[in-house]
Design brief:
Elements lengths: L1 H22 L4 H12 L3 H26 L4 H21 L5 H20 L3 H4 L11 H21 L4 H11 L4 H25 L5 H22 L4 H29 L6
Helix pairs in contact: 1-2, 1-3, 1-10, 2-3, 2-11, 3-7, 3-9, 3-10, 4-7, 4-9, 5-8, 5-11, 7-8, 7-9, 8-9
């Protein structure tokens, strides 16, 4: 039984890694549903375990984007500055939230991010992408705010924060989609480390399952990032938005039924 669980975990990690590398997210939008729907985890255990695995999954994808030069490192630093604070807040309040509320919030974040990505932007639609963020005072404040929200999402929901980072960079700063995704990963890796350390100390992470997820995630992350760099940025943006909607619908319909049958926390 354990061997089967680890094999399923590695497969989920592979799928999450491909998704994460392709769209510049940590893969939590695949890992969390996978843990809940396939392995019987409940959200308060699935989110932290997913977050721990994202450290290596996002790191593998980041290495490929960095090699291509598709990372705005200064913007990534400012995003992380806010995200580290948000992640610690999320870790502290997760045990005060109900399973039902946590699941609904996760779905809401996915839908809002998808809608924002699909709103046409003149600069993006005309191909006028920027290679980096112009770090004015207003831009820095915006990056810190986006980082804080993303960190809160990461600490609460076991995702890397990319579902906030990527839309913020692409939609609000008109950054090239490839650079937005690479920068998202750069901010995500240290953010998930902060969250994973805090959750680990609280005993919320299944480290063996996280390890199996990470093994598959490394392979998938490298492959997904390689594929992403070959796709048109606008197509990639629309695919990303579509993915968010699909995952939100699936989580809303299927995990809600499961949570009603198993209201207790943990696994």
């Amino acid at each position: 039984m354990n061997a089967r669980r680890y094999a399923v975990s590695a497969f989920v990690g592979l799928a999450a890694g491909i998704t994460g590398g392709l769209f510049g997210v940590g893969g939590g939008i695949v890992m969390v549903p996978g843990l809940v729907l396939l392995l019987g985890f409940l959200p308060h255990r699935a989110h932290p375990t997913s977050g721990a695995a994202i450290v290596v999954t996002a790191g593998a994808a980041l290495a490929r984007f960095a090699f291509d030069g598709s990372v705005d490192w200064p913007a990534g630093v400012w995003l992380f500055a806010g995200a580290g604070i948000g992640a610690l807040i999320g870790v502290r309040i997760i045990d005060r939230l109900s399973t039902e509320w946590l699941t609904r919030t996760f779905v809401l974040v996915l839908v809002v991010s998808a809608i924002r990505l699909l709103i046409p932007e003149n600069a993006s639609e005309s191909g006028g992408f920027a290679a980096s963020v112009d770090l004015t005072l207003g831009a820095i404040i915006g990056l810190l705010a986006a980082g804080t929200v993303a960190g809160l999402v990461a600490g609460l929901m076991g995702v890397g924060g990319g579902i906030v980072f990527v839309p913020a960079l692409a939609a609000f700063y008109s950054i090239d989609q490839h650079v937005a995704q690479g920068t998202s990963l750069a901010a995500m890796v240290p953010t998930t480390i902060v969250a994973a350390v805090a959750h680990g100390r609280a005993g919320r992470i299944d480290w063996r399952i996280a390890g199996a997820l990470g093994i598959g995630g490394i392979i998938g992350g490298l492959g997904g990032a390689e594929l992403a760099l070959t796709l048109d940025p606008l197509l990639l943006r629309r695919l990303f938005a579509s993915l968010l909607v699909v995952v939100a619908i699936r989580m809303s319909l299927q995990s809600k039924k499961r949570l009603r049958r198993s209201p207790a926390r943990g696994i």
